[in-house]
Target: TetR family transcriptional regulator
Amino acid sequence: MTAPAADPDGEAARGRCPAARAERVRGMLDRARARGAEPLYLPDGLAVVLMPTCARMLFGVGPLTPDCIDDLVDRVLARRPG
Model:
């Protein structure tokens, strides 16, 4: 069995989405620095907030309530140095 041929439009869209997200996150971090805030360590934010949020939205794994999001953000902030 051979793998289906790659869809060029799909490949292009998959490439644009992460790039657009990365640019938005960079903008948020830049604004935090401009305010004098210590910005979030990005890998922690991705691992602790973004991925569980995406899993809940895409696969219905667990609740996605304001309390849930607050808990995830609190976990990231607790991991910050200082």
